[in-house]
Amino acid sequence: MRAVWAFARMTVRSLLRRRTVWGILIVVLLGLIAIGHVPSFNVQTEGRFVLEFGLFGLEIGALLMALGLAVNLYPRDRESGTILPLVAVPISRGQYLMGRFLGSALVQIVALLVGCVGLMVILILNDLSIPSTLLPGTLLLLVEGLFLLAVVFFFSFWTSPPLNVPLTLALFVLAQMSVREFVGLFPQAPSLMRLLRLLLPHMDVFHVKDPIAHGESVPLLYFLLACLYGLAYTSFMLSVALAVFRERDL
Amino acid sequence: MSGSCIEVVDLQKHYPTRMGLRRIRAVEGISFSLRNGDILGFLGPNGAGKTTTIKCILGLLRPTSGSVRLWGEPPAAAKVRQRIGFVPENPTYESCFTPLEFLRTFSEMRGLDQGSDFMLGLLGRVGLSGWETTRIDRFSKGMRQRLSLALALQSQPDVLVLDEPTGGLDPLARKEFRDIILEESRRGAAVFLSSHLLSEVEAICDRAVILSQGRKVSEGSMEELLRKKSPYTIRFSLPGSTPVEKRLEGGESELQKEIDSIRRRDGTILAVERTGRSLEEVFLEVTGEER
Amino acid sequence: MRLPLATVLCVAILSLAASGCGKRIDYDVGEVAPPEHLSGPDEHPHHQHDQHGAESAEQMTGARGHVHTPGVRNHGTMWFFNQPWAARFIWSKILRDSAILVGLAILLLLLSRHVHSRRWS
Question: Which residue range forms the structural domain that includes residue A156?
C-alpha cells in the first residue's frame, strides 16, 4: 500500500501540471457562475434552477475531469517509456493501476469539492437556502466521478485516446437510460436490447439532482446504497482493467 | 557465488503486425544464462532482438514460447523485482521532480528506508552532485542516464540489467559508468549489459552473447570468442628463397594442410602464431555470416 | 489477451444477466413500479400532461404558468418518481448488485493473477 500511495502522490503532482485539468475546473466554475446569473422565470423556481443546473454542471464536470485526467495517462506513459522503469522494477502492474487511479481520484475529488463549494457560494449570493441533501448529493457525484474514472482507465488499456473519449461518452449516455428507454432505441429486438442494458451500469442510481432541486427528502440509506453500488461498480471496472493490463505487452 | 540468476531457455517472441495478418519474429529460440557475479555482454546489430529479450527478462513482454527464470522464479514475481536494478535505453521520467525527490519516491515504492545522506551519496557516485534539487526537465540525456543508474543502484541489486546505458554519454562519463559496473561486479552483483560499444563490452565483460536477426549466433567467454576462428600466421622458408609470411583464415585444418605442403617441398617452418582479434572483428564476422 | 477478456466478458454477462434478466426484476422502475406509482391520484385534474401540446401559450407561460409547490406530486411527473431514489422496492436490488459486483471484482482479480503468473512463466 505504501508503494501505491507513493506512486499516487507522484501522479497527483504530474497531473496538477497539466493545463487540461485546470482548464476543465475553470470552465465548470465559470458555468456555475453563469447559472447563478441567468434570470429565472420566477422567484419560486430560481432555487430549483440553480440547484438542478448546478448539480448537472458538476456531473458533466466529473465526466470531463475523468476524461481529462485519465484518458492520456497510460498511453502517454507507454509512448514516452515512463512506464518501463516503473513496472520493470519497483511496482507491479496492479500497483501502477491503483497508484494512477488513486492519484487521479484525489485530483477529481478536490476539483468536485471546489465545484460544490462554488455552487454553495452561488446559492448564498442569490439568497437561496442550501438544502441538507446537497452534501450527500455531492458525495454521490464524487462516487459517480470515481466510477467514470475507472471506466476511462478500463478503455485506456485497450483503445487509443481518440476512441476512449467517444466510448466513455456513449457509456455515460446509455447508462443513464432506463431499460424501457434503452429498448426503445431498437425495439425490433427487445430481448437483446434488454440483455445489453442489463450489462451496462445503472447510472440512473446516481440521479438525485431532481429531488434535491425540488426539496424532496432523499433518505440517507439511499445515498449509502447508491454510494455502495458506485464503489462496487468502480472496483469491478478496475479489476477488469487490471485483467486486461496484466496481459498487455509493454 | 555459483548458480545462475537469469536462465533463458528457447525464448521466442513474435509480434503481430498492425493488421494481425503477419507475425514479426523478433526473437527466435535463444538460450543463455547469467551466473551470479558475472558480467555478460549482450550484443547484436539494431533489430537483433536485444531489447525484446531484456523486456522478456523483466516481465514487460510475454514470451511467445520458451521460458525466462530469475533465481528459478517467473520474472514478474515481487520477490524477484526487489533484487533487480534496471537502466532502460532512453530513460524518461516524470519531469516535474528533482533527482532527490525521485530517489525518495522510488525508495518508498521499493519499501526501503533510506536517509537523505545515502541518496546524496548515491547521486554523487553517479556524477550528479550539485544537481540534486534541479528539476529533471532541465537534464540532458546523459544526466538522465546517470539518474537512471542511481535509481538502479538504489536497492543494491543482485542483478543489474543495463540496456545501452552509455548511449548518450561522453567518453569520461562512459569511463565512470564502466568503473561503477566493475565496482558492482566486485560487490557480487551480476551484470547484464546490452551495448553497441564493443570496446566497452570487451573491456569489462566476462562473457558475451551475440544475436543477429533474433537468433543467437555466438556465445562464450570473452577469451573463447576472441580466439574462435582467429587466423594463424605462418612464417617459413623454402630452399633457395627468402622467408615468407602467410596468413591463414581457415582455422586449424588449413594450417595443417599448409604445414604438410611446406614439408613436402622441404621447407622450414620458422614460426606459427595465432593472431588476436578484436571483438569488433568477431562481431562483424558472426553477424555478417548470419546476414 | 483473448482468453482473459473472453473469460471476463462471459463471467460478467452470466452474472449480471442472471441477476436481472428476468422480467420485472431489473431497475426499470417504470415497468416494475407498483400500481400506486403508475396511476396515483392527479393533483391537477383540470388538464392532462399529454394535452400540453394543445394547451395555449398563455396557459404554459402566462399567469397560470405550470408551477407546482416543492414536494407535491404532479401529473406528468412520473419520470420524477420513477427514479431509483423514490422506488424503495429496488433498493434491495441495488444492494444485491453491489454484492455481486464486489464478488465479481474479487473473482476477476484472483483469476487474472492466476492466468498472469501461469502464462508469463
Answer: 2-246
